[in-house]
Amino acid sequence: MLLRRVEKKRRQAALGTEADPVMLEVFNNLFMSIAEQMGVTLQNTAYSVNIKERLDFSCAVFDRHGALVANAPHMPVHLGSMDRSVETIIRLNSGDIHPGDVFALNAPYNGGTHLPDITVVTPVFSLPLEGRVAAQRPGGVLSEGTARASNPVDPTPSGGFAATSPSSGEEILFWAASRGHHADIGGTAPGSMTPLATTVDEEGVLFDNFRIVDRGKFREKELETLLTDHRYPARNPHQNIADLKAQIAANEKGVAELRKMVAHFGLDVVEAYMGHVQDNAAESVRRVLERLPDSSQYEYPTDTGQIIKVKITVDRQKREATVDFTGTSPVMKNNFNAPEPVARAAVLYAFRVMVEDMIPMNAGCLRPINIIIPDGCMLKPAYPAAVVAGNVETSQHVTNALFGAMGAMANAQGTMNNLTFGNKTYQYYETICSGSPAGQMNSGRGFAGTSGVHTHMTNSRLTDPEVLELRFPVLLEDFHIREGSGGKGKWSAGDGTRRTIRFLEKMECAILSSHRNRPPQGLDGGGDGEVGSTKVRRKDGTIDLLKACDQTVLQAGEAVILTTPTPGGFGKL
């Protein structure tokens, strides 16, 4: 094919702040790319197996008000709740945030979720005068061969271009944040996921608005004191410090990339498109609401004897929906209480999943959704209620209830099968996958489940056997997919797994799990899945059956055998 130009090429117009469909897609991917690059930095620089190998972390970019703009495809339970951490940092430090400052937080009742998840938050300040002049070309486009000489992009460790103060006219434009699940943050059991805790103090060390970097100076001594000056201190504070440094480095990558965007497109364009991508997400969710029934509800009983109730009501005229959790069980003396950001994260995730377009999961998705969570229920606990299972287990229950109410998906396994083990030297945590449930898309197209994958609020992976056995005194005897174990239906669910780990040293071992006494349910006539189990094989060959939430000691040569619950099928055969 021979092409000839018959008309002179038009010079590209300067990019404006009005929404352009092509540039909207470009910025969708640019924002997500920044979060992905942050994640790569975190993975490469982290020390713990939990973050480096299992990828139990999340990174995201936020606007100046703390609203989520875009994230990488990391952990939904992190991403939908992280904006509350950013908002808390903004509120508590108003007027006292400087270039080079970085903050850390895990407080469940003040923007956090559960204690092992520590969020590191970094402000992105405006350019100093010389950088700002260089970046602001007509239309926000960097002129060829001009501003690069003045180096407007300078990803310095201090988090700013220079040691300037807010009085010089700099202002916070954006925020970069990363959340990592630390393998141990103290508490009564190694791994900080004890099923026996009834107060948050028994679950570990609490970070409540801790300034981890002060104007470029890393406060290592103060951080170590925070980790160790506790009734149940962190068992490996040096590992915590190493992973927190990796989170700070990940945020700095986000800061540098956001500055590159501003230098290339101009601040007005970048901020405009931060708004446009959220507007687009809101409109995408409104189109989903058009396909939902006027009113639907679902009750989800749990192994703890509690019930999660959700009712979804659609207002056609306003193109809005109300998600009402009235009737959900109250706070109990267990640790399945989930802080409000966790339930909110589940709602954000569920409605984002119903959007079949490729858009970032951001704050705009929740704009058409009104969430009602009554005070005192298990989805809105108050201090000092224990919460460690709320983040990992209750979040899965809420997600299953939401998809059930929307008639979209059968129950997933409804648990993360949180297995922790360790002693004074070693601490390890993993979540164990099952299959994914069957269901139907918003367009009405049905689908079968997939075997042996993490689903919904978790998106981590298992540690490679070679790394697991190199870093810990254990032997992975068996890990396989149990064929035919998923729920049957017109669309069948994926199959579950079984995992056997033998210990080579004496270890404390704990399991936090669900669906040990009732199977995940099918939907629209589909069959139920199977219940799971956790067993211990003792040295004399006897088998102990553990409860859904249990804690025990294993001697060298003994093994834990975990069989995952399996998801439900969709539609009658």
Describe the structure.
- With 573 residues, this protein is an alpha+beta fold.
- The chain contains 11 helices and 22 strands.
- It has helices at residues 21-45, 49-52, 76-79, 82-92, 129-135, 220-228, 237-265, 267-289, 340-354, 388-406, 465-471, and strands at residues 57-63, 68-71, 102-105, 117-125, 172-181, 210-214, 217-218, 295-301, 307-315, 320-324, 369-372, 418-422, 427-430, 439-440, 446-447, 474-481, 497-503, 507-512, 533-537, 543-545, 549-554, 559-563.
- Strands 2-1-5-4-3-6-7 form a 7-stranded antiparallel beta sheet, sandwiched between helices. A 5-stranded antiparallel beta sheet has the order 16-17-22-19-20, covered by helices on one side. A 4-stranded mixed beta sheet has the order 8-9-10-11, with helices on one face.
- A hairpin with a 5-residue loop joins strand 19 (533-537) and strand 20.
- Helix 6 (220-228) crosses helix 7 (237-265), helix 7 (237-265) crosses helix 8 and helix 9 (340-354) packs parallel to helix 10 (388-406).
- Residues 129-168 have low confidence and may be disordered.
Short description:
With 573 residues, the chain is α+β, with helices and mostly antiparallel strands. The chain has 11 helices and 22 strands.
Report how far apart the termini are. Answer: 53 Å
Oligomer category: single chain
Mean pLDDT: 89
Beta-strand content estimate: 15-25%
